[in-house]
Amino acid sequence: MKGWIGKRLRVYLTEGKIVKEDIPEEELHRYVGGLGLGANVLFNEVKPGIDPLGSENVFIIGAGPFSGTCLPCSGRWTITTKSPQTGGYGDGSIGGDFGAELKFAGLDQIVIYGRSPKPVYLWINDDTIELREASHLWGKDTWETHHALAEELGDPEVKSAVIGPAGENLVRTALIVTGLCRTAGRGGLGAVLGSKNMKAVVVRGRGSVEVADVDAFDRVRRLFYKKIKESHHINNFKDKGTLWITRSSAPGFLVTRNGQSGFFEHWENFTSSTYRAKFATKKEACFACAIACGSHYVVKDGPYASTGKSPEFGAIAKYMSAIDNENLEAALYALTLCNKMGLDAISAGSVIGFAMEAWEKGLITAEDTDQLDLSWGNVDAAIELTRKIAHRDGFGNVLADGSRMAAERIEGSKDYLCEVKGMEWISSYPGVGAEKGRMLALATSTRGADHLKGFMAELNGLPLTTAAVGADKADILWNPDHHEGRGTLLALENRFRAATDSLGMCWFSSEVQILGDLGPEDLARGVSAVTGLDMDEEAFMRMGERAHNLQKAFNVREGIVRKDDTIPKRFLVKDADKKGIPGVDPARFREMLDEYYEFSGWDMNGRPTRSKLDQLDLGFVADRLGLK
Amino acid sequence: MKRIKIIQENCTGCRLCETTCSFAHFRKISPELSRIRIAKEEEFGDHRVALCTQCQEAPCIEVCPVEALTRDQASGIVILDEDECTGCEECREECPTGAPFITKEKDYPLKCDLCGGGEPECVEICSRQALVFEEAPSYLSTHAIGDEKR
């Protein structure tokens, strides 16, 4: 076997038992790795209706066939579990060095079951694998834990994935951190590990990854490197980091004051150029990354003095525009605090913005908020509240389960929710005059209000897209005033994203192919060279479609269907553009959703059909869903 | 001669140099089989790059008890004769960069051979110019402190 190691670790925490097994070749050929392999295990091994924070949930870590190779941008790995935030399919693609190290330690996947009677961490040192006592680490923040593990294991090169106090306290927006600041941020994955009494997974590997066809691989790695180096779009990330998005979102797409507006007056305070001029010190990359979108920063002095890295647009904007704060130093401080607490900054900043709107509307007062003044722009209160959320302290406990559950506790606040399926909205869109197809992407993403399952940019302009939407309609996909074809494009992108996340490739290397990023044909060539599978563009997209349908089927089994594929009430606005407010016309949205379901081969309630599942060799999924 | 210069402040810690090196030499991908090593420092990005710099006065050549290390007169590259090497590790002890790396995979230490001529693979793949291949009579990186890793 080449590319893959062909090994899976099953860890039974309740019994303290660890079993290493071969992964059947057929399973690898079908689901490939990372996302696909994880979605299959999740669908098969998690019973419907279980409590995501109960011992019946499983926590899956998976590398891809590209992980650990020298293909540029192959440093991603995937965590899969039932999300405690949405009650549905939860996953996170995460960078750093951990995924590659897992392969070097001789594993493709880890599946963690049950609940440990006492705090533990999993230590994988090549073939020596054990559960170790973690009581002394419980309560430590993620940075302290990272350093303590390296010290305790006597090797600065160990790679760890850890939770902080938020995960321990079962905060439903808790995340997993590796390398101090790289995170599987969304959906509360950290709370699942916390519920299992597991502080960390630590790995050190000294083995190697082999590829099926060394000559073909040598050509493919050079091709990837060349394309990544020359893509105009990728060079944005390379030069500016993700904060370049601030400037492009400024004309009305920045989620401001909990989504009340798309315009943020102080947007120039958090552009990439402002950040780089004042705070950035050094570029920072994940394993095998030729882009290095991340950077280290230093805020030297003052109340927000801090050091950290990877201040991404999505997270920073939540502590800027979403809460109407104009001070970037404070936002950087808040982001690093979130990373240390093991808390998703996007959701934390969002739920604080939501609370600030509840304050504005007079639904809560200082009596409810432990005397914190939640006026717009009070970033010090936001920082204090972030700490309280991580520790479920006082008013923090009201917000610690995310904004949907907070709305149950704050009377009259439901109309101000800015979430999908219980997961808080990202930091941009819907803007005035913007591409409304992106609303469809956020509405239908399997894990909530999130753009990482396809975002209307990846495949636009490619021959396969033109073939799917029809030559006559391909051009209007560039025109934000039209919505025809959007559903088809998104369905294709779902497949593409599920495929890239199964390989271990970074989103940023394949985001806008028309500008020269890696496309399905390039990546299919990579799969053939690395694994020996005979894969072309069509087979690649089919592999992704299979993995995406597994995610969808998991949600359908949990009762998550069309009613949940929607956007916040405040964004469903008739004639929004004409009124100059963020939103999309409900009728237009419905039409896009119908087209999306139809092209996906799902029924109008958003459920995969038996014929579609059979076509994808997922007949067993149709059986389990009871489809005729 | 042309040597690899390490510009530590440009290193992002991506380690493509490590894995590309092992692939170029062994057709397998493993940091453990690399002739260049990055010790990552996560907080400030103060990563340490360790690599043989082909010293003009090479202590490894002096100390090798079996004369397995020699300088190729034409290219200037310090060459290890892997068959002659007994794996005594004295070269590593004397090396100012700590660069001949000991690995359980091989019975000889791994040291940079500049890919035998032309632009080395690690330099070619370094997207941030932390590694530069340039003409230098004698270059010893002050940043190349290999003892911190393995």
What is shown here, in short?
Chain A has 26 helices and 17 strands. Chain A has 628 residues and is α+β, with helices and mostly antiparallel strands.
SSE order and pairing:
The complex is a heterodimer of chains A (628) and B (150).
Chain A: E1 7-12, E2 17-22, H1 25-31, H2 34-45, E3 59-62, E4 77-82, E5 89-94, H3 98-104, E6 109-113, E7 120-125, E8 128-133, H4 142-153, E9 159-162, H5 165-168, E10 176-178, E11 182-184, H6 189-195, E12 198-204, H7 214-230, H8 232-240, H9 244-249, H10 272-278, E13 280-284, E14 294-299, E15 306-309, H11 313-318, H12 328-341, H13 345-360, H14 379-391, H15 395-399, H16 403-409, E16 419-420, E17 423-424, H17 437-444, H18 463-469, H19 471-474, H20 486-503, H21 520-531, H22 537-557, H23 576-579, H24 586-600, H25 610-615, H26 619-624
Parallel strand pairs in A: 1-6, 7-12
Antiparallel strand pairs in A: 1-2, 3-4, 3-6, 4-5, 7-8, 9-10, 9-12, 10-11, 13-14, 14-15, 16-17
Chain B: E1 2-6, H1 16-26, E2 36-39, E3 48-51, H2 59-63, E4 69-71, E5 78-80, H3 90-94, H4 121-125, E6 131-135
Antiparallel strand pairs in B: 1-6, 2-3, 4-5
Averaging pLDDT over every residue of chain B, what do you get?
90
Structural class of chain A: alpha+beta
Secondary-structure element series of chain B: EHEEHEEHHE
Number of strands of chain A: 17
